[in-house]
């Protein structure tokens, strides 16, 4: 199972008046991690879109534990939590430099045709992605 690790410096614009990261920024960080994991698997989101495929989020679940603050760095760990041929479940853990977990959770995605937004089987349409997801999903 491959796990991408991406470090991000908390920027001032991501924080509130107290210097605490606003919750919405964690979703952006998860997207950064997900994009890096896809790159680590040997693929590119932009090429997927050029090929007429989109991968929208259909569910996101994120639990917050410890606040990240301006001036700190966080690491986004991202992996394939599960995969069933149609849906991809990505797992995330965002930690501070001292190891404290700021947030963790999952997002669920499907691939759809860009023109119709109709979902399709990744296994059938994107066999190389299917193989990578099968080989790298979390073992239960």
UniProtKB/TrEMBL annotation:
This is Acyl-CoA thioesterase. Keywords: Hydrolase. It holds the Pfam family 4HBT_2. CDD domains: 4HBT. Its EC number is 3.1.2.-. Belongs to the 4-hydroxybenzoyl-CoA thioesterase family. The keyword Transport does not apply. It comes from the Bacteria. SUPFAM superfamilies: Thioesterase/thiol ester dehydrase-isomerase. GO terms for molecular function: hydrolase activity. InterPro entries: 4-hydroxybenzoyl-CoA_TE, HotDog_dom_sf, YbgC/YbaW.
């Amino acid at each position: 199972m491959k796990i991408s690790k991406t470090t991000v410096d908390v920027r001032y614009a991501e924080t509130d008046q107290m210097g605490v990261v606003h919750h919405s920024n964690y979703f952006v960080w998860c997207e950064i991690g997900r994009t890096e994991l896809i790159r680590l698997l040997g693929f590119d989101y932009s090429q997927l879109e050029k090929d007429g495929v989109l991968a929208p989020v259909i569910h996101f679940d994120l639990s917050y534990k410890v606040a990240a603050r301006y001036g700190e760095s966080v690491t986004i760990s991202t992996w394939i939590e599960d995969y069933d041929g149609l849906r991809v479940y990505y797992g995330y853990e965002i930690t501070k430099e001292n190891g404290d977990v700021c947030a963790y959770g999952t997002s669920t995605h499907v691939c759809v045709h860009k023109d119709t937004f109709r979902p399709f089987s990744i296994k059938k349409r994107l066999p190389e992605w299917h193989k990578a997801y099968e080989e790298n999903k979390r073992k239960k």
